[in-house]
Amino acid sequence: MTFQWHQAERIQVEPASAGHRVVVDKGVSRVMMRFGRFLGAVAMLLAVVVVQLAMSGPSSAKSASAHGAPIKIGVICSCSGPFAADIAAAADVSRAWAKSLNASGGIDGHKVQLIVDDDGSNPGTSAADLRALVADHVDVIVDETILDAAWASAAQAANVPVVGGNFSGTPYYTNPDFYPSGQTNDSIVYANVVTAKKAGAKTLADFYCAEAPQCAQSVPLIRAAGAQLGVRDVADASISATAPNYTAQCVAAQQAHAQALFIGDSASIIVRVGADCTKQGYDPAYITEGTGFSTLLSSAPGTRTNLWSDYPILPFFANKAPVKAMDKVVDRYYPGLRNNPNNWSEYAAQAWTAGLLIQDAVKASGLGPHGTPSAAEIRKGLDSLKGDTLDGWSPPLTFKAGKPHPVDCWFTARVHNGQASLVDGGKLTCEKGASS
What we know:
CATH architecture of the largest domain: 3-Layer(aba) Sandwich
Shape: globular
Strand content: 15-25%
CATH topology of the largest domain: Rossmann fold
């Protein structure tokens, strides 16, 4: 996994009069810069009001208060540290979404106030970020970290709904306060094996990450799904990000006659595995989870020839109207972001669908321009959604109050000869199966 360390940050964008806060020391200590900025903002605001009143009379003062109270959205992102390579771009997508939304008047008359906290890929910092956002009285939290287990119970205790974003964690199919914008992890292993079968494989090898205990938990699940679907698991091996090569694992899978190879790791590691297996003359159908897909895999040895993946939302490379709408906004506010193959991945698109889910929840809540945004209002809106596809991005989303929200549908796509494309025209597969 690529390591990219940046200064941890905590900033608010929109409305402009809000305070600006920066966290240093890897996201733990805070430098508060409110007072001086507040005085400056007040002075400028008074000047603007005086000028407007002098030029336009009472009507201008009335129009300045046309918008309701802002919707406060907290974002916890692994924007630096070892997870940043796959996740960092997601925060910029959230910012682009917020800026575009505010430029068009917000949601039902309410602008969005986005507070981004970088946990530095550290569980302790991630938990501290959650506490800070609760203290800030945010109305909803967008999850852009794989460390949500560190603060899931605290978010539930605070009665703040959490929207993914990253929705691969257990809370998204076990905790009623976590709302996914796509397929949840209870069916992901089963989906991996279904995808291997679509690729024509009857035997499968499983390469899982060595760094986290939960990675090894995929082995019995893949075996169970394989037994149900007729895709036999013939080889399993752990792979470490620090290993000099993966030759031994490739040779073992080849000797076991594995026709498909599932690799449960980041795109940068998958690229290395594909290169080593190709050197051994081993060319299986590569199977990956679409959440971590980046365009690196479209040009790398092995994966560029025969890669199949299951996607929790519409793949970011799909030639579809909802994808084009996101691309237009991202290119406007963060030009060049989508052209970086090291950072632009499906995680980034999932940040966009998290924003769309919040939009639809606010509208469904009946808040209106004169209502007061709150966590309770956002939750009411989320729990009233039925069959929402987020403009075509997601499987139909229906949430029931007080119940967990598993989503067991996914899209399938493949890379062939360097070209990524949807399988079956983007038709959803909806199954649960033995591993769920």
